[in-house]
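User: Working on a comparison across species. This one is Aspartyl/glutamyl-tRNA(Asn/Gln) amidotransferase subunit C from Oligella urethralis DNF00040. Can you predict its structure so I can line it up against the others?
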Amino acid sequence: MSLSNQDVKHIAQLAAIELSAEELQQYEGDLNSLLTLFSSLKSIDTEGVSPLTHPLAMLAEVQLPLRDDIVTEADTVAHRSALMSNAPAQTDGVFLVPKVIE
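Assistant: Here's the predicted structure for Aspartyl/glutamyl-tRNA(Asn/Gln) amidotransferase subunit C from Oligella urethralis DNF00040:
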């Protein structure tokens, strides 16, 4: 699968970014290179390969540092009001954000 110039323009429009003619050509090449790489990775047989929790786990046992899941802040109206005090728009304790999807 390969992306055309029109495909890259459409992707840029969906991402709400403007691309110059040079950038459009560069991104078309970059995206097509990525798709080629993904195709080659897709052809690799991974049957029976266990997923790793860390990139170095195949070389040595790695113990990931974890912390206890403990609530450290009080859930009070005053605390929520302090957190929401600099929100540009809010209602009923939640942030209001503008619609970004056309």
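For your comparison, note: Residues 5-42 form one domain.

User: Helpful, thanks.
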